[in-house]
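Still learning. Show one?

>
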Amino acid sequence: MGKRRSGRELLSSLSKKQKKHLREFGEEHPFYDKLLLLLLLHSCFPFQSENSDKSSAESDSETEVEQVSVYHKLLATLKTSPESESEEEEDESESEEAGESEAEMDSEGSQETGEADGGEEDKNDVPEEEEATDTAEQTLSQEQDDGADTSCDPRHGVIEEFTDVKHESEFSLETNFMEEESGDCNADTRDSNPFKQHMDKELEEKEIEKMSTLPKTSSQSQWPRLGQLTFSSTLEKHKTLKADKEVDVKQLYLHKPLESTWPKVNKQFLSSVSKPSDSPFTPLQRELFCIMNTYRDLFYPERNALTNGEEIRHAYCLHALNHVLKANAQVLSNNAKRRDRKPGSDTDDYRDQGLTRPKVLMIVPFRECALRIVHIFINLLEVNDKKKIDVSNKKRFKGEFGSDPEEKPPNLKRPEDYEAVFAGNIDDHFRIGVAILQKSMRLYAPFYSSDIIIASPVGMRTVIGAEGEKKRDFDFLSSIEILIIDQADIYLMQNWEHVLHLMKHINLLPLDSHGVDFSRVRMLNLNNWSKYYRQTLLFSALQHPQINSVFNKHCLNYVGQVAVRNVPLTGSISHVVVQLPHVFRRLEAESVTSVIDARFQFFIDKVLPEYRDAIMSHTLIYVPSYFDYVRLRNYFKKEDLNFTHICEYTKKAAVCRARRFFLKGEKQFLLFTERFHFYKRYTIKGIRNLIFYELPTYSHFYSEICNMMKATDNGMDATWTCTVLYSKYDAQKLAAVVGIDRTAQMLQSKKNVHLFVTGES
């Protein structure tokens, strides 16, 4: 308010001619410094004013767009200072110099030099916090972010929640009633409905105590498509899950409109020769949805962005939307019953809500994922072309979550899996609330008025906050009934702590009532038993101890947990196409916590001395953990070794220099982090000796790095070496690289294992 008021006072002191000049030309007046002009801009173009509820709502008017663009241009004139401009010029000249040197390294084509010259416009950079500078476009989009969500930007001191006054009453569950023509009310009251069976189950304190103290019992079963399943539960005894060979949509108890829309939406994944009478699910979707529909927790570690990623996304979107529609239909139906009930009748029959409205939380890594999810929701809700649903703020959503195809740099070739993962808008800082009521959808709904929240881990972390912060909120997570974590493996490359932080703050009792009618709240929520009813769906491209830990410790569903536990038979080593001897050296460690120090000591005592000789030049050391990378870098500096290093925070110019020095042999060692490879996928040339300090997180990275070893001189390939460090705690990673049979032999034997791969098998 202080800035806005002072800006108005300054504006009032200007003449009409000066105001007109400022609006039309956007020139910096010589009698105002930049700070004062910024204040004037906020007052001249108050698009983010106190009445943000009106201006944040989607507007199709051209005048509003023009105002924003003028503000845009004015801010752009002030975004750099002389000091920052000189720094940028210095950076560019350094980058150009590195690019010229890189061009001399080899003449294998313009693609490699285009990657290495430091001029590549790759939007997948991992930004370094110390160098982050906001352009006018970023500032503008942050101020208009989800839910008028200035909390996405930690620089803002106040969390302003998006409020859409126009649609607030329309999407309120308390003031609306079930439409008579829908006929959904009767469908949702069937006793065999999985939704009602799960949510209406009343647990006893003895059962809660069992789940808190007793270990889980497990059983295994084999399914045709999913493979080996492990079912675990505390309350239910050994139970064999059987896959349904055929699934009738009517037997799934889907909400009425979904029965007709799902076959159309999912048609793209079905065989072109499928008959109308065939199942509307693919074999994978059928088995996954059969488990989802029982409300058991599910862990599926074989998600692949190239093959089955979209199939899985459609399946869990169907389940989430079905759950929300049923829950809302129950509330609207009970609203009508309460309205017509006789005075003095029992009100306990209408307990149909949680302490807060959000029911489904969907965690995805990028904005593109959220965009696809919302599109699936819209398609599932539109019965036909004539009956389009009303989607509020759709234009704004497309602008903030969509992407411009022209932004992608041309002539950049990356592996297919890289292109699939990093498609579209890959901003990883976002959150958006979605409210769904009968035939309408509201995007950018306030969290406490939302049914579904779609967010990234860092987007949730900034709103949840940390202990001791004044502005933090996590009450909206108190009554989450379905938690979906998709592409969990990517969060290992981002920041896994954000996922753990979220799991610690979900399904806690809220600190405020938030206007809830306690006579409508389920007893399970009042007893703080929500976590025992919450269903968690966890999808990943791999099995990892961190992901397994979340599934085992934080998934407490009383119905039980189902995990897919298939073991790899061959491993990614079979995809190595160069003739290369692989030496797997086993290190001993007493515990998981001590393996970090044991690996470091084993490396500097037994492995590194073998590579200190000048003849062992061109040695790349692949380090998955950034903390191990820092430790090794400091040790190499202390020992004054001839080395260079590349990590996810290295500038482009420094990357170019490091690649050039390593290729020409001016640096003997190259420390190389896994996260840099994940985000960039550069080809490192000149590798003759390769050391995997630890097995890679993604098994296919092993073959990718090995296949970079191309001869730079005739006959050099005879001296190639590959050394891998592993311990008994790396069993899952080892199996993904060499296969389950070799892993069993290697873990039983304490000797080093020598493998020689002659090519792709």
User: Anything to note?
Assistant: The mean pLDDT is 79. The radius of gyration is 29 Å. The CA atoms of residues 94 and 409 lie 21 Å apart.
